[in-house]
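User: Assemble these into one structure.

Assistant: Restating your components, then the assembled model:
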Amino acid sequence: MSWSLRLPFLSLSFSPRAVAVGFGLLLLVNLGTVLALRLGSYAFTETSWLSVLLGAGSEIERMILMDHRLPRILTALGAGACFGLSGAMFQTMMRNPLASPDVIGFNSGASCGALIAIILTGGNVLLGALSGALFTAILVVGLAWKNGLQPQRLVLIGLGIGFALAALSDLLLSRTDARTAADMAEWLIGTLNARDWQDVTIVWSGLLLLAPAIFWIHFPLARLGLSDDLSSSLGLRLSPLRLGLTGLGILLAALAVCTAGPLPFVAFAAGPIARALVPNGKPALLGAAVIGALLVLAADTASRMVPSIQLPAGVFTALIGGPVMIWLLMVQFRKGKL
Amino acid sequence: MNAPAHLHANALSVAFAKTPILKDLSADIPDGKITVIVGPNACGKSTFLRSLARLQKPDSGEVLLDGKSIHKQANRSVAQRLAILPQSPSAPEGLTVRDLVTRGRTPHQSALRQWSHQDAEAVGRALDLTGMAHNANRPLEALSGGQRQRAWIAMALAQDTQILLLDEPTTYLDLPHQIELLSLIQSLNKQSNQTVAMVLHDINLAARFADHIIALRAGAIFTTGNPAEVVTRNNMEQVFDLKCQIISDPVHGTPHVIPE
């Protein structure tokens, strides 16, 4: 079953199940956002959050909602969407669920770059994360390039470089004073503590700018799921396409890392969960974006619920992502793919 | 069908790790006919077909599509004229037959034009021609081997090209399904005048379904011609090192090899 959409400038086909799941997920995002706004060390009642949002309530209430929770939630949603998109892109391109940016070193590269920017120059996290991710990507892709870009080589080399960069981050931490190091260590696990409207602007304007490119690349990406020979015989130019996808995936990963830190497992888990909900063999980019947003929102809200321990959100995404990884490995193993 | 397209191999040489696979091989693929490439294992059949389909870049020589080197033409424009079904193709899990066949439309589509009326027509036609319409909504992995192969052929048909290349399309099929598939390809060729070139293992099936046979031995052409010219006692002995008798197939009148 599929539905067709035909406009003068655009024609698409899509499955009713994907649409239904999409609406369900959006509903969940709305519910989750409302819950996240209400819950916390200062809880709002079922109706009071809305009136505060609309301008009523006390100064303090407005500050909690508008200056703290709302930007934090919007950053979580945006960063989660970036992670989900980036992960699903790499996984589909490599036809391998292990090939997500948090596994193949790009997140480590982004966070290492951000650390260098903070510690050595006291400078811009975004610029640091972007250049770190870009540098890592050039290194990994450059080393993996052999008659074109081959998925297995990329995964293995990315894994190795990722470990090396994590070690470099640790080294940087050990060379700074204890207080900065403690802050940085929390940031390295991934946290949405003290996010403001500037972070919201960065992540959402980045997403908005990249949206047309993501829409455009979704079409060839969906065909890359066939073998190399087949996608090439269907007229795709594999190496330029993979370079473009890698570039886009890195930009998305860097955006997410500089606003939420290198939250583990979000990029890795979002795609497989989305594909399990709509198992039609397509890349499920949109689904992965929404699942990623939900995962980060849930992790951050959970981390706010236990303020006494001050666990960073990354701990919770790892709690969700770990089992997903085990499930994926078991499925892969049963299919004889490992 | 699309504008006529012609395929020609000119002095192809391919080597893997310095072992020569094809040696200075030139061949013409006759338009509108079924050409079958035969030869013993490791004679370079598949490499030859993959070179024709621009999936293998030759070390020297070139494949000419409509008189121009195939590697110097836009990949998408080549894909509008030439389709290839490689050996044991794979698709992502869960992909339905209809979605797979729709993938064949890729060279005629773009990000903004993903599902035109022509696409819907071509996909419907490919599903009907291969008898897969009633299986269209089933995922590929739920099908039997024979049905799956039909689904792949349907994808190649939806590509709507003048030239169709098939690399051992009958692998993993039992004899009835082999005959069924090759009869399907033959009837499609007769209906649409599509140029077909395929690699087949079975010399008797090749003799029965081919208009033109290219016999390879050790990376070079041993002989070419119609089945009666190629499938002779002498040629079989020299190409396959096979001592045999040739009889006339009592049903189809084509040459039939009886190994001694």
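Chain A has a mean pLDDT of 89.
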